Amino acid sequence: MPSIFTRIVNGEIPCHRVAEDDRYLAFLDINPLREGHTLVIPKVEVDYLFDLEEDLLAGILPFSREVARKIEAVVPCARIGVSVIGLEVPHAHVHLIPIDGVHDMEFSRARPSFTPEQLAATAERIRNA
After folding, report:
1. Total domain count for the chain?
2. What CATH code is carried by the domain that includes residue 75?
3. 13 and 25 Cβ atoms separated by less than 8 Å
4. Given the residues 16, 93, 95, 103, the one annotated as active site
5. Which of 23, 30, 39, 87 has the fewest CB atoms within 10 Å, i.e. is most exposed?
6. Does the global pTM surpass 0.90?
C-alpha cells in the first residue's frame, strides 16, 4: 500500500505545495510545529533516508536549501532547523522548521493550529518568495 506521501505525490491527497521538481516535493506539514513547517520528500517511495539511491540522497539537501531560503524570506525566524526522524511515515522526508531557539524543534510540545486558509496563504507566500 502506498504511503500517505506517495498518495500526495500522485495527487490522491491534497497538500499545500511550496516547491517541486521532477525528483522532490516540498509541502507544508498539516500538523506544524510553527508556521512554515515544511516537509521535503523524494517523489519515489523509499522508507529510510539512507536507503535512497545515491543521487537522490545527494540532491535532497540542495533542494531543501532552496526551500529553506524561501521560508526564511516570508516567516520571521532566526534560522531554519532541519530534522530527519524517519519513524512517522514510511517515506523518507526532511522537516524544515522555522526556529528562534532549540525549543522550537520539540516535537512533543503542543502545536499551534492553522486553518486550511492560513496554510494556503503561507504556502503561496513561500512559493512566491
Report:
1. 1
2. 3.30.428.10
3. no
4. 93
5. 87
6. yes
